[in-house]
Design a protein that fits this description.
Elements: H1 12-24, H2 31-41, H3 43-46, H4 54-67, H5 73-85, H6 87-94, H7 99-120, H8 132-153
Length: 174
């Protein structure tokens, strides 16, 4: 994997992971299960603290979860530990990052820390897809709506507020 700057998303893994999380975040699961799925996409990096990309993996996951208001204590704690113990800066120094770039990286880490801890402070967004029951209700309502539109095009009509699929005799479509 390549790294081309001091930013969190200045590497191949970070860019790929952001796309992966965007897709995984749409699944109807809670944060802990979503974290497991993301970890399964890069198990060697996620589970090996000696891997050069390990810190980047957890920081990107925490940042994306915070931006998407996905709560997961494991992800948050792992990222905060990486920031607080200096593991990310140490790994980048080991890889040859200059002291000026390390200072820029440290500033970026402070911003990530702020985002991750702010997510804990109470910004909770409703995720309708997080509940399978809510998802099924949404799909059912869309199917009913589509069915009604098809029948209206064929000249059938429905009683107001009705979810019946069969047309009601004597009513004209509007």
């Amino acid at each position: 994997m390549g790294t081309w700057g001091t930013g969190l998303y200045s590497g191949d893994l970070a860019m790929d992971l952001r796309s992966t999380i965007a897709a995984v975040a749409r699944l109807p699961f809670e944060g802990d299960r979503l974290a497991e799925i993301v970890c399964a996409t890069e198990p060697g990096v996620a589970n090996n603290p000696d891997d050069e990309e390990h810190t980047v993996f957890w920081l990107v996951v925490a940042d994306q979860f915070a931006r998407r208001a996905i709560g997961c204590a494991r992800v948050r704690e792992k990222a905060l530990a990486i920031i607080d113990d200096g593991a990310d800066l140490a790994m980048h120094a080991k890889r040859g990052m200059s002291s000026a770039d390390l200072r820029k990286r440290q500033k970026m880490l402070a911003e990530v820390r702020e985002r991750v801890t702010a997510a804990v402070a109470g910004r909770v967004r409703y995720h309708p897809a997080r509940s399978i029951a809510a998802q099924e209700c949404f799909i059912l309502s869309r199917l009913i709506d589509i069915s009604q539109r098809i029948h209206r095009r064929k000249g059938a009509a429905f009683a107001p507020g009705s979810t019946a699929i069969a047309p009601v005799a004597g009513l004209r479509p509007t």
